[in-house]
Amino acid sequence: MWGQRRERAGGGVSEPVRVLLVDDDALVRAGLGMILSAAPDVAVVGEATDGAEVPGAVSQHQPDVVLMDIRMPRVDGLAATETLRSRPGAPEVIVLTTFDADEYVLRALRAGASGFLLKDTPPAEILRAVRRVAAGEAMLSPTVTRQLIAHVAAPAPPSRSRAAQRLDQLSERERDVAFGLARGSSNAEIAAELHMSIATVKAHVSRLLIKLELNNRVQVAILVHDAGLA
């Protein structure tokens, strides 16, 4: 069912980005709903109050993007993200937090989230993040990436070695693109740096995701950092 949603959502560029809000705080949901509903190209299609409600809400509302609170009483956003992103055709996930360098955020990104937002992020930035993630881009700046990686202990040598071995299967050009992702660069920035078209960058990203068996570009960035190559 989720795979059908993704195909339908990609069928027309005029369709608004469908967003599901997941937060146990009614005021947070109301505030986000007001911000997102004010944009003509974004539609809030549903809400959930706990991670346990996410699978049913996704099946019912068919969102393109889920704004997911991390800390909820029964099933937290980390577990909900892991469950959601493990299924084919899953929507993109942006995690919500009150901390800008939180170990739970990094774990959510490893689980397949495409980025995170602080709950006091300005409205314009929230809209930009939703649009960017819906378009297949990550929304982690280089500064944020460094903060998150530095917040947890560096990988032990065996883990670093395994990460490096996974990257060894990439072609030279794919590695160049992977390093660009690790710096938080957009497709356009990588294209300019490597003197290739944006379409070629997208093709390289798709191939390296398949080779590395990862969900999105954020996980590629984390893998490069784990290998000690960033």
TrEMBL record:
Signal peptide: none annotated. It comes from the Bacteria. The modification 4-aspartylphosphate is found at residue 69. The keyword Transferase does not apply. Residues 163-228 form the HTH luxR-type domain. Keywords: DNA-binding, Phosphoprotein, Transcription, Transcription regulation. It holds the Pfam family GerE. Residues 18-134 form the Response regulatory domain. This is Response regulator transcription factor. The lineage of its organism: Bacteria, Bacillati, Actinomycetota, Actinomycetes, Micromonosporales.
